[in-house]
Amino acid sequence: MSRVMSLAEAVQSTIKDGDTVAMEGFTHLIPHAAGHEIIRQGKKHLTLLRMTPDLIYDQMIGMGCADKLIFSWGGNPGVGSLHRLRDAVEKGWPNKLEIVEHSHAAMANAYAAGAAGLPFTVFRGYIGTDLPKVNPAIKFIDCPYTGERLATVPAHRPDVAVIHALRADKEGNVLLEGILGVQKEAVLAAKKSIVTVEEIVDDFGPRNLNAVIIPSWALGAIAVVPGGAFPSYAQGYYKRFNAFYKQWDGIARERDTFLAWMKENVLNKTPEDFARHVEGLRTAAE
Amino acid sequence: MNYKPNEMMTIAAARALRNSDVTFVGIGMPSAAANLARLTHAPDITLIYESGTLATKPTVLPLSIGDGELCETALTTVSVPEMFRYWLQGGRITVGFLGGAQIDKYANLNTTVVGPYDKPKVRLPGGGGAPEIATSCGEIFIIMAQGKRSFVEKLDFVTSLGYGEGGDHRERLGVKTKGPTKLVTDLCVFEPDPVTKEMTVTSIHPGVTREQIQDATGWTVKYADEVAETPAPTEKELTVLRELHARTARAHGEAA
Question: Does the keyword field hold Signal (chain A) (predicted)?
Fold first, then answer.
């Protein structure tokens, strides 16, 4: 059953050093504020799991939170490389980062299998690629009905899933709209979860009968963090701050500019600062 | 009208798309080409982005695969597992649009790593949707600027399958889709040889020489018996493409 608490308390009580943590969001609703809190609390030796590690994972990797990354596409979407991820993989800074590499289809299927309580997933994938040579978790089986050779990967069962949703109601159910990514699957696959939301409302009111709602009894901690997805976006609340994704390329390129930015904008800040970041973006979304 | 090689490349790729296509679109040049097709000769084309947006009609090009614009202008938006399981793997996409850091003469692509995997010279973003797009879409169009460092004899890593080692290798791997039927560059258009499946030049962009094409290719380039000249961009194509890019720059600039 979900429980509302501060983001600091949610991270402190839910995530342990060494955990496998999935912070999902497919461009939309990326839990940036939660990532900053994990950095401020100095969590270490995490295995970070995510289809599209982008800026927030670049920041967490650069600040030394992670020992391992399981992923399928690691870049700054539409801009280029993640320089902190590359520095960790290519030069071992600030620590060596082990990588386990998949395709999107495999990752999406692995979350769905985790949510379904299955040990592995089967799909038509990885044909003719070198990925199975570098990731021993990728195996192949013959279909017992047709004989077709099919790919399998183990289900994702993260210790903790962290997502950002639009709103929660007083009962602690949360609602998502727009691009949904694999957030619902990640939460249902995980042992524990943290959901940051834009706001808590008395009830969801009139809504689409097929709205994507994750019920209170399937959730862990809920923390109210307006603007918590910034510079990503929250459908109907504020737009994606595309300019920052471009700026990040320059900030993250060198270790010293990166560290100075992290000190000023993460270590010396609080989750409340996210509301201020999106003030100017709110009207643009209306 | 004067035009740049990149514009010729985008326009030549757009022309390959048909009004009836259901297209899996990647960010960057594929997205520009697919939307140009929609705004010119293929108004009913269905554009699908892997973030889950079905039949989207963005007025500006998205910076990322999941910009709000894609969702707001889509017929509907599905979850990412559904996108990969039902729509891509289910065989409902006619054309997949891919690019890459490296390509070989059998149109296999590398978007993973330059140099050895464990000690990479350059760590690239990785496969994303490409490994399964390459084998599940009816056919594949590839769009890539041509150069010796990207058009290589041997890939450092095969991220997505083209024709493997050529000939019937794709069929021997059990793949039933066609594979890369067009490779559009800033210099020319390649299509696979019917038997060997080696990518072969079938059309050269105006003003480009065979020497230029060879100088930008890491293998000995083969030409079809009859090589056409790619029709130059029309005024309409150029105007629509430039307006699209201008709208996009304004939209992303304003967000700053």
Answer: no
Contact B64 A78 (CB under 8 A): yes
**What are the tokens at A64?**
């030394």
Say if CB A102 and CB A138 are below 8 A apart. yes
Tell me the β-bridge partners of B199: B192
Q: Is B18 helix (H, G, I), strand (E, B) or coil?
A: coil
Which residues on adjacent β-strands are paired with residue A224?
A197
Q: Which of B92, B86, B93, B130 is nearest to B110 (CA)?
A: B130
CB B66 within 8 A of CB A104: no
Same domain? A268 vs A169: yes
Strands A174-176 and B102-103: unpaired
Count of domains for chain A = 2
For chain B, the residue count is 256
The CATH number covering residue B118 comes to 3.40.1080.10
The answer to whether residues A279 and A231 belong to one domain is yes
Query: Pick the catalytic residue: B50, B69, B198, B237?
Result: B50
The domain total for chain B is 1
Which of B80, B88, B255 is facing A239, going by the closest CB pair?
Answer: B255
Query: A279 and A144: one domain?
Result: no
Contact: B127, A28; criterion CB under 8 Å: no
Pairing relationship of beta strands A160-169 and A192-201 according to DSSP bridges: parallel
Q: pLDDT tens digits, residue range A110-163? A: 999 999 999 999 999 999 999 999 999 999 999 999 999 999 999 999 999 999
Does A109 fall in a domain?
no
Q: Is B50 a catalytic residue?
A: yes
Co-location of A39 and A124 in the same domain: no
Residues A277 and A179 in one domain: yes
Q: Domain of residue A126: give its range.
A: 120-154
B194 prior amide bond cis, ω within 30: no
Close Cβ partners of A49 (under 8 Å, ≥ 6 residues apart) = A20, A21, A22, A69, A70, A71, A156, A158
Residues A182 and A253 in one domain: yes
Q: ipTM of the assembly?
A: 0.95
**Residues A117, A114: Cα–Cα separation, whole Å:** 5
Query: Which helix (H) or strand (E) covers residue B24, if one does?
Result: strand B22-25
* Residue A2 placed within a domain: no
Find the mean pLDDT for residues A261-280.
96
Q: Is residue A182 domain-shared with residue A257, that is, in the same domain?
A: yes
pLDDT, one tens digit per residue, over A226-239 is: 999 999 999 999 99
Among candidate residues A231, A188, A233, A194, the one with its CA nearest the CA of residue A212: A188
Is B17 within 8 Å of B239 (Cβ atoms)?
no
- Is B66 in contact with A90 (Cβ distance < 8 A)? no
